[in-house]
Amino acid sequence: MMRSVARLDETFLGRLRRRDPEALRRVVDEHSRRLYRAARGMGHSTSEAEDLVQDVFVTFIESIERFEGRSQVSTWLFGILHYKSQERRRAVVREELNDPVDQVFESQFDARGSWVQSPSAPDQHVSAREAAEAIRDCVDGLSPLQRDVFQLRQIEELSAAEVSKIVGQTITHIGVLLHRARTKLRTCLEGKGWGRSR
Amino acid sequence: MMTCKDVSTLISTGGLSDAPRARRLAVRLHLAMCRHCRAFRRQVEAVARAARAAAAALEAEPPHDFESKIAQRLRR
Predict the structure, then answer these.
(1) Which residues, including other chains, have CB under 8 Å from residue A180's CB and lie 6 or more apart?
(2) Nearest residue of A to residue B39, measured between CA atoms
(3) A74 and A108 share a domain?
(4) Nearest Cα to B69, choosing from A57, A41, A14, A153?
(5) Which site in A49, A111, A145, A154 is 20 to 30 Å from A20, CA atoms measured?
(6) Which residue of B15, B59, B71 is in closest CB contact with A24?
């Protein structure tokens, strides 16, 4: 059966499989900086991120035979990055079925599904620097999986379908993880007084 | 009829863009009428802006010879 290789030119894939240095260099040039930024966003230090991204490309080459070209190279690379990142953090990748933050969200609504108290409208005059400082500690409160999903969905702006492939979770669960991350961040920022009028 | 909880969950899970047209319209209608849910949406957008600002403020660029180092390692 003919298999369509819609996402990646077959000739280029062949060159990658033969370890053609020019083809490899093209993949490195196209993706390494984005992967590095994502690794930093996932909480790794500069040297860790550098090392991690090198590792990603080594694994990419080692596993190139399994890459069928049906997904984008970036999806494959982000998948390796996520796996390596979890490995380094020695994190339990399995997310708890219930997170206490679900209760926090639930408690904001009455039995008819209406807000108990209106969410505080964020202060539009907070500078980018202030906002960045406020959220930095809050991000550390996310579980590793929530942090990766938040980074990939919110910062890298990847689709839920892509992130689902990358982290090996269903699209529905990607939504749950993003929702939990956002609820934790909103709650944390509110706790810092962010959003209250001054 | 969608409740505030339905609308906020849909916004927060990022599922709005993939929702059927009728559901998206129902959300728009609800948002037009509900200031609490509009405030919630602004909160979610503010969190996104803050996260992007934090990401931009990180030392997020690798050293200038980063690609060469990787290429070198791949040749080993």
Answers:
(1) A99, A101, A102, A146
(2) A121
(3) no
(4) A57
(5) A49
(6) B71
What is the domain-level CATH number for residue A122? 1.20.140.160
Same-domain pairing of A62 and A84: yes
Residue numbers of the domain that contains A153: 100-191
Specify the amino acid at residue A68: E
pTM above 0.95, yes or no: no
ipTM for the whole complex = 0.87
A-interface mutation test, from B40, B43, B59, B66, most A Cβ less than 10 A away: B43
CA pair distance B35, A106, nearest whole angstrom: 19
- Could you tell me if residue A57 is inside a domain? yes
Which of A70, A89, A108 is the last residue before a domain boundary? A89
